Amino acid sequence: MTDYRNIADEINAASNIKFDCSPQDLRVIEQIAVRFYEMARQFGSVVDVHTLQMDIATCHCNGMPLLLWQLLAAPSSDFASDVSGIARNINRRDGKLMNGFNPRFALLASPRCS
């Protein structure tokens, strides 16, 4: 596992984005990124695992805490929707999600229409 704590400390010093995930959360985030990478690879897409890990950690630690274990275990369609939505909608300057995106596996998810 890559140690993102040093990278996160450097980014924290230069921005308002927090990376105060627990070591356990970081391990699950890594597993989420690897699962998404494998899914994307099956469809011929290229995904940068490290960028994806940072995007998920940014989301999780900056106002949209995620139910990480539930996300990791989610059905493929829900999993792909949440992870790709986070990657597309994360604001890397402030760590917030844009465009009204609300992951299904967010701790504070708002109700969805069925």
Explained architecture:
- With 114 residues, the protein is mostly helical.
- The chain has one domain (27-108).
- The chain contains 5 helices and no strands.
- The chain has helices spanning 5-14, 23-42, 49-61, 68-73, 76-89.
- Helix 2 (23-42) packs across helix 5.
- It is globular.
- The model has no long low-confidence stretch (mean pLDDT 87).
Give a brief rundown of this model:
This protein has 114 residues and is an all-alpha fold.
The global form is globular
Order of helices and strands: HHHHH
Mean pLDDT figure: 87
Radius of gyration: 13 Å
User: What number of domains?
Assistant: 1
Segments where pLDDT lies below 50 for 5+ residues? none
Q: What is this structure's SSE topology?
A:
Blueprint (H helix, E strand, L loop, with lengths): L4 H10 L8 H20 L6 H13 L6 H6 L2 H14 L25
Name the descriptors.
single chain; 114 residues; mainly alpha; 5 helices; 55% helix
